[in-house]
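Putrescine transport system ATP-binding protein
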Amino acid sequence: MTRRFGAAVALDALSLEVGAGEFVALLGGSGSGKSTLLRLVAGFDRPDAGRILLEGKDITALPPQARDVAMMFQSYALFPHMDVAANIAYGLRRAGMGGRDIAARVAELVGLLRLEGLERRRPSQLSGGQQQRVALARALARRPALVLLDEPLAALDAGLRERTGLELRALQRRTGASFVMVTHDQAEALALADRVALLDTGRIAQFDTPRALYERPATRAVARFLGAANILEADGPVPLDAATPAPAYALRPERIALRPTVPTRNGTEAMVEEVAFRGADTLVLARAPGGLSLRVVLVAGQATPEPGQRVALAWEASALAPLSA
Ligand SMILES: Nc1ncnc2c1ncn2[C@@H]1O[C@H](COP(=O)(O)OP(=O)(O)OP(=O)(O)O)[C@@H](O)[C@H]1O
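Structure:
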């Protein structure tokens, strides 16, 4: 799909295929097009070019309520004057479901989302986590084939976010619906999604499993976005010996080790600049000849160097992930 706003191209001939029952995260920087894509799929906006197919059916021209798609907004958008049960029942009632069926489905969702005892409360009488679960129950009520989630965990505090994220994934598995979640948070995307689509200026930079994205980023831009990877140029100051020729390589900080001596290839001497103990591991920033700055992560239990110390660093050829651009 393509979507333009005046001269700005929010989505640039972007194509994405989500499998049935798959959990996909849309990850990308601010302005990369994540919200635009979600709004188009939900039906709140129309593409300038392209089509949206759901289970083989063209839904591009259908209004939101006629699509088998539900959206959960970042703000949850719960009706403040309705209680929990009425919020969950809203879409079912609009769809013309009978009272007894609605009551049964609401009870089922209350159980699924652990909202027992809260049915008569208004949204303002709920915690943030409870509101999030009501919003999710409302989105799931009509058993949509596809659930769109806009930063579903962003409004929760850090302590609650991790657990709620894992619950969200378990729920997705149980319902069998496809989930597409927008997030800024790469750790969240990697932890929850089956596949992550990394968006960059309206295009998909890479669409892959979390592990592949992390271990085999396709380009420098992806490696940089996922953060913390060292990028080594093939013609840079450090002699490399990689299995695949490429203009540059990503090297994960945890794949670099301290060695007694510098190997002739895939290693370098370096000066330790910063050492940060982080509990489970220690981050070392070291500067190699030629000014190359390297991030090294040493797992707990390994000897850690001191700032100002000269060290020998080395890595396996298999640790060099080729970058195409
Ligand atoms: N209604 C609009 N009018 C004009 N430009 C828009 C409109 N909606 C989005 N854009 C532009 O399209 C581009 C993509 O925006 P979009 O909101 O999809 O990005 P995003 O990845 O969701 O960003 P964020 O993470 O900040 O929410 C941006 O350059 C944005 O300024």
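The pocket of adenosine-5'-triphosphate is lined by residues 5, 8, 10, 28, 30-36, 184 (CB under 6 Å).
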